[in-house]
Model the fold of this input.
Amino acid sequence: MSARTALPEHHVPTSATQSDAMAAWFVIGAGVSAALHVGKLPPALPVLGEALGVSLLQAGFLLSLVQLAGMALGLLVGLSADTLGLKRSMVSGLLLLTVASSLGGLARDAQSLLVLRALEGLGFLLVSMPAPSLIRQLVPPARMPAMLGLWGAYMPLGTALALLFGPLVIALAGWEFWWWLLAGLTMFMAGWVLQRVPSDRQRSLAVQALSGTVSGWWGRLRQTLRAPGPWLVALSFAVYSGQWLAVIGFLPTIYAQAGVAGGLSAVLTALIAGVNMVGNIASGRLLGRGVRAQRLLYTGFAVMGLSTLLAFFVWPLSAQGEGLPSVLRFVAVLMFSMLGGMIPGTLFSLAVRLAPGEGTVSTTVGWMQQWASLGQFAGPPLVAWVASAAGGWHWTWAVTGLCSLAGLFLAMQLGRRTSP
Done:
């Protein structure tokens, strides 16, 4: 089945109501709540290093272990989502995040935190994986690109809020209270989703009315993995997410090592993470106006590669060399996050578009989530290893540059699949 005929424009249930459209905002809110748990760790790393003896390499794994479940189970959860229920999956994930974060505040060694971060990763997957399919079923077709672009902003928004308020909460009440506070917020969001999002049965009946019978797990798995589209969007998300989390996740540590005050570091890091939302929202609007997805991907990956080269490259090539002035380095990282944000919003739309059939959208999103998690799992430890070996962060650009080159190649292949 070709990419151009896989999913006709009327594949979203036309019975979406105003109440359903409002429910889509609660789905996005649940994603932001889950993303807070991903972003809660970077501002705590300097404190955890002193309190629990967390090393730089352990910090890299703490940043990435939250993606372990997605890396191992993304496809499986995608396959089972329609059977288990998208809403039930999301609520279960929020509750698991609540429990893991509550226990995390009691941890007294790095090993306990590593195990609990893995559990948080499973909760994050259960929340984030069903969301694109839920949004697709809740909003009219005309609004879907814009809403998926907004959904793509859930991660930078949650990360930015955590980076902004985390240092303040940690300074006033300790890192343990920061973990418990987010557990309470997540429990609150689980209640809202239970109350405001329609039941899984109501939506499944509407989807089945349009799509007819849906093949079993093995049929959907084979159909998805045989199609090139799911592979291309999944690999693209991997090379994007790995470099974004590596750079953003270590910014508080980089600023602390450079002697930047904690309050200023929190504001700067939160701003850099937050502007990623601009690219996500812009991608949805631009796609809705007919701009080709390939052009947005080219722009995002090219800017990410060039901006990290400007931000981290040191001339002469040594840890003691001088690079660009600090202000220009900050602007470069700002562009890295903002224009790079066009990539996830575009890929979420492409995942829905390039799914090989109506019954494989959740599976395609799960496959994309699995590779995105693999990128986020590998990126921070790789950058940490390079920084440790080089004695500084001045070779970070090489890692991100290779990711961007791979992204440009994949964008070229996606352009061939989605050409008019």
Residues 1-15, 205-214, 315-321 have pLDDT under 50 and may be disordered.
